[in-house]
Structures are given as C-alpha cells and as structure tokens.
Amino acid sequence: MTVARILRHKGGDVITAQPHRTLQDVVTLLAEKGIGAIVVADASRAVLGILSERDIVRAIARGGPGALSEAVSKYMTPKVVSVREDTPLNEVMEIMTNGRFRHAPVMSNGQLIGLISIGDVVKHHIDAIESEHKALREYIATA
Question: For the whole model, what pTM was predicted?
C-alpha cells in the first residue's frame, strides 16, 4: 500500500500559507479548517517550509503572545521531509516516527500534490486490518 491510495480517498487539497503571513493568520486558518499543520509555500506553491501546532506552541513559549504578530517564516520548519505517491505506507510510518513529525507533503515532479498525516496512515492501516478481519470471519463462516 502506498501514499497514492490515501490520496485517492482523502484528495489532494492542501491548505498553504505564504511566508509573510503572521502566526495569528495561520492559527486562525488552522482552527477554521480543523487541521494541525500548514504548508508554507510561495505564490507558485513551491514548498518553503511547514508550520505545525507544535511549532506555534514553541514560538509562543519563546516569544510570548507577541510572536503571533510575527511572520510564519520565522517559526516554520524549513527543512521539510516529503514523500511521493509511490512511497509505501510502512516507510511513511518509519520516516515520521524517526523524524518525530506528523505531517509530510506529497510531491510529484517537484509539485505539491497532497499532504499526509500520521493520522491518515493509522486510519488506513486500521481500515485494512478491519477489512481483513471481516474477510476472515466470512471465510470461516462459509467453510
């Protein structure tokens, strides 16, 4: 199973913010959209960084409430680890666990085509286990 399978169900919509936006702008956007991270991109959607709830908490811890009026680029994680559509889900879990992050942009030919979270991966994994469990029960019932 690969990232492409999750994107088929989830879709490829990615909420982005430009680097000059304030943390307050992004906090509001995260709350409105019910998401935990946002890709920081330029006008052509080239990935410049990622900003997660964890990054925002650290920014406020360091800079106090005044950090909310500062640019996202000051607090984003600039070294973004991305995955491809053909990346196996087991590899995604390993990458995220080892890197201690929960969101990864999905790239294809240098273009941002999606965002995958560890929650997406776990949900897909649980769905696959439940499907296998159901198939085994049906097999046993008809044997």
Answer: 0.84
